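Morning F.,

Quick status update on the modeling queue. The single chain you submitted on Monday has been processed. Sequence for confirmation:
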Amino acid sequence: QVKLEDSGGGLVQAGGSLRLSCAASGRISSGYVMGWFRQVKGRAREFVAAINSSGRQTMYAAFVKRRFTITKDNEKNTQSIQMNNLEPEDTAVYYCAGGDFVDPAADIRLYTDWGQGTQVTVSA
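Structure tokens below.
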């Protein structure tokens, strides 16, 4: 099993930036996709972005609109998401996620490993 530890959330004003990071440890396979989901209380968890094991393939939710960039450091087994031009609607708990499959995907059912979540709050 893979353990994921996410960090980097906080409070920022609209238009500001935050960088979230996720460190993976344990038995990580060669085909392991990592990504981010977010959840607002009372709503379903939704896909944000994902990256494949090599870091060459990425996928983003439509609402990202080129504001976020997901990257991966395979030497450190970490992945990060740089979030720019944040909007109040981006306020949520963000979860790092991972799963044993090849191509980045938005289907939450594919992700078997989860971080504890980090709060992102964007004020107007």
